[in-house]
Structure formats: C-alpha cells, structure tokens
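Exam revision sheet. Question 4 asks you to relate a sequence to its structure. Input first:
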Amino acid sequence: MDTAKLRGLGVAMVTPFNSSYQIDYPALDKLIEFLIGNGVNFLVVQGTTAETATLTNAEKRELADYVVKKVNGRVPIVLGIGGNDTHKVIDAYAKYDVSGIDAILSVTPYYNKPTQTGLYYHFKTIAQNTNMPIILYNVPGRTGVNMTADTTLKLAHEFQGKIVAVKEASGNLTQMGYILRDRPSNFLVLSGDDGLTLPQIAMGADGVISVLGNCAPAMFFQMVNLALQGNFAEAAKIHLNLIEIIDLLFVEGNPGGVKAALNALGLIENVLRLPLAPVSDSTYNKLKKELERLK
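Answer key, structure tokens:
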C-alpha cells in the first residue's frame, strides 16, 4: 500500500452511545463530518478510545460497515482488530467485510503478558493469515507488556509491505529512537501519545493516532503538519497551547475525558458503557472552560 496516506493526523474515534447505551449513529454522523471537515488525514475505528471491549461482535461489524459507507472514500480508514488469543484475532478478521478499509491496527496481547518471542509469533501469524496492511500497536500502560524496538524492527523487516507501521505508545523516546533509526524506509512510526507528538515528529516520526483529534482536530492537524514540514517554532506554539487540554483529557482516563469534551461541544451524549463512567463535574467544567478558551 501507499503508506503516505497514513501520515499526519489520524483520529482514534470514540463510539457515541445514546441514553439507552446503544450506538448513537446520528451522533456518529456528526462526529465523522466534524473530523473530516477539520482536515484530519485518516480515521481509526474500534481502537481503545472506541470502548471496543464493550462492543458485541455484531456491533463491531455493523459499526465498521457504517463508517465505511459514511466516509465514502474521503479519507483512509484504519480498523482495530486485536486481542490476546491469536487465533481469535484471525477468526475475527475473517468475519469482517474489509472492503473500504485501508489497514488494520492490532494491539499487543493484553493480560496474559507474552514474552517478546510470543509477541513476534503472534504478529507473524496474523500477518500470514490476513491480506490487509497491519499497524502494530504498542501500549504497555494498558496491556501490561512492552514490545521492544528489537521485536518491532524484526517484524517490520521480515514483513515489509505487510506490517507497514507501528503506533508507539510506550512513552519511551529512546525506544522510539531505535525504531526510527533502524526501520525499513517504507515503515511508518506513529505517535500514540498526544503530548509527545511534537518531540517524536522532531525525531522523525510520521504522525499520530490521536485522542485529542476528536475534539480539537483543526488545531492539532495544524500542529502536526507544521511539524512534519519542519516548522517546529510555529508547531511548538500550538503544542504549548494544547498541553492543558491534553492533561485534562486523561486525568480521569480515556475515553471519559474526550467524551466529556465532545459533549461540551454538542456533538455526542456524555455516555460510556460500564465499567467506564463519565468524568466528575469538576473535570467536565475544566474541559468545557478550556475548549472555550481554545476557540
């Protein structure tokens, strides 16, 4: 695939729910138009921010199909398909209609804490049993296991053209540096941390898969693309203007913060599925105030 289409600002979309805890498709329509209208480069469906763990298999397939039809080719779409049972991941992939999907994002297995050897064979097996480009997703703060630079690079070199990128959310700039230094020329490195996106692009990263992009897409798009153009002085001004809202989005966890922000913008209801719950009134009001300031 042309990996250039996955550079820049990708947004890990929330899944809006209504007061009955069902997927709110009218709100999803508004969110999609809001994001595309504000210039995002690609969309990620059913990542962590989407509360994917609480969606049924039927809901996952219906949601993916709906987004593909609504987007209608205007921007690339990445679909999250991951898990901690390798063969269930392959089986889940086989049940999707992936026409209209540009790549899949697959998280490192969580809870069972595989070794680096286990991680390598997990992704090798997925690569050998799917026909879609794969973005690796390393997020040790959630999964309990860190995929090292050596493992990422081994997969990137062995499966060039198939494993096409990594979303690196370890927060470890040294680890990302090794990946950037030794990656294949066509392998993308994407930030998984909104607050580290600017320094990571300065090191050579290709963009970000973002939470903040849900509620401040225009500003974050501008920052990311200024940085990619090498205009770090102007990008830094925007970065510093956004650091408070980034902190607020995560102070009570993701996606509670970003759903509160989107509710304050009038785009979705402030509803999450258990075990997640809405943020406190104090955090909500701080987010609302900060969004008003950013306007």
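Marking note for examiners. Residues 3-229 form a domain with the TIM Barrel fold (CATH 3.20.20.70).
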